[in-house]
Amino acid sequence: MLENHEYYVVDKLAVPSVLLKTIQVKQLLEKNPGLKISDAVKQVDLSRSAFYKYKDLIFPYNSLKATRMVTFFMELSDVAGILSQILRIIANYGANVLTINQNIPMNGKTNISISIDTTSMEKTLDSLEKKLRSIEDISKFTIIISE
Hints:
Layout lengths: L16 H15 L5 H7 L4 H7 L14 E9 L4 H11 L3 E7 L6 E9 L7 H9 L4 E8 L2
Antiparallel strand pairs: 1-3, 1-4, 2-3
Helix pairs in contact: 1-2
């Protein structure tokens, strides 16, 4: 079953501090490429576990406007070849993979995030999303436009 996500625009005053601190850490890391995550979370008084829990779920509103870099977050079945299948589809659409982050499988599932550059895509981002969502072994799928 695929999970549909809804997005909201919320006033900063209504956002819990843990989410605001997560954004602060991400901004610190972006401005200081050599900064370690553990040091960045200490600077804003946030636990590492909270940062990792929310880092792929919260973004400043202005970071959602451009569409050059897109990050997909997926929960996959622990099946041989699934990541290869996903990467092949992305390549067939003409996108360039920038990063892949995969967790160790637990209970037959694993989480991955893949960031791609869509500049030279030959097809639409919507069609790529539909193609990826159609893969049977993907149980959760979130698309985050991040740059």
